[in-house]
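Troubleshooting log. The previous structure file for this entry was overwritten by mistake, so regenerating from the original sequence record. Sequence copied from the archived sheet and checked twice against the printout by T.R.
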Amino acid sequence: MREHAVVISGAGPTGLMLAGELALAGVDVVIVERRPDQRLAGTRAGGLSARTLEVLDQRGIVDRFLAEGQVAQVTGFAVTRLDISDFPTRHNYGLALRQKHIERILAGWVDELAVPIYRSLEVTGFAQDDSGVTVALSNGASVRTRYLVGCDGGRSLVRKAAGIEFPGWDPTTGNILAEVEMEEEPPLGIHRTALGIYAFGREEYEIQDGKIVFAKEGPIGLMVPEKNAGATTEPTLSDLKEALIAAFGTDYGIHHVNWISRFTDMSRQATAYRKGRVLLAGDAAHVHSPVGGQGLNTGVQDAVNLGWKLAQVVKGTSPEALLDTYHAERHPVAARVLRMTMAQVALQRTDDRTEALRDVVTELLGMEEPRKRIAAEMSGLGIHYDLGEGHPLLGRRMPDLDLVTSDGPVRLFTLLQDARPVFLNLGAPGRLNMAAWSDRIKLVDAGYDGAWELPALGVVSAPAAVLIRPDGYVAWVGDSTQDGLEEAMNSWFGPLG
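Regenerated output below.
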């Protein structure tokens, strides 16, 4: 029986990101993936948020995505676009890039890190005991592992087999997505009608002055609302024709379907992200409407929160209790995402009362404070883990400062590329005795002259020292004393000795 320290079920964006994080930490990890290769049929997520771009920047791979995507102000709430170009981040924008490209680039990175992927295989069951998990595969073989992570989507077998409940809200709306051949070109773009929202586009497009300009040729991608949100049969060409004629009086000569799928606004969340040696991340832990574009981004950030913690537990530097902080931090984030998507779906209804409500919300979001608050949330830049009272930086993302060190200028995110914690001393060099921690924590003496600014919150007081976790969140903030520092290092990065 093969053995690996960690088995990940699913090579989507969440599974790939988690595998990369574990590989950076030197953990023996393998992915089990049912697809024979990374190719992805159909349209899934369409881009990366500002915080996800920061996370990829922290690992030194963001340029790979920027080279293929299109930078734009794509953050929004329901039908209201929210400009974040004044936010204090190097990535004060979103990136339009289809999921198939995101997965391909992540898979390339994971391949460089020499993570094996067992393709054309699925996890069919598992049994866990005190020392590990025996994972059954669809070819009849088994793999022994210390931890199993389900990154296997909304219908997650891992979640179901673990007996983790998945409560939430049944769908109220449904949409059919398809790529089709048409005799006539439909009106490209998004159309609000009394019957719902319809959209037409093409695979290739450019964003010019904030507007999408589609290619002149190629098959048409379309989205049409479904009458029955809870439909269980597969959608068909005749379903598409019927929906188009109802809204536009024509089906534009639609005659061939390349692929077809559906999505709904079903919203569900796992009651626990961990059960013993089994953990969940991404859609296996939370599903919701794609409106607002937070699904893929939330999953990737789940992986970055879990990766370093799981690595430390596997290596024995931290007790297993550290894994409980994964649920404690990420469950509230996804719960909020569910509420935000449900609110946006409600605002997309086309009756007169919803139109009136949408007008009020649009007016509110035109004001500075509400815009900044909601835009920080939608872009992921406003995430705040509850690490107790203290400096506003505590539990928030560390800004990517231009630091000055004895070796010259350095950008803070580059210090996180190997996914190790960083202790940043901004006072006199050597004033804090950190030598005992040097094998676990990167010690950096540096200076910084600029303002410390956080999205939505604004300018905060400059700290004398900061302890930064591998995921880029601040675990401790110091002034002139070391109060609480040893406790923070012990709890997050394992006790010494």
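The CA atoms of residues 304 and 471 lie 6 Å apart. Archived copy saved in two places this time.
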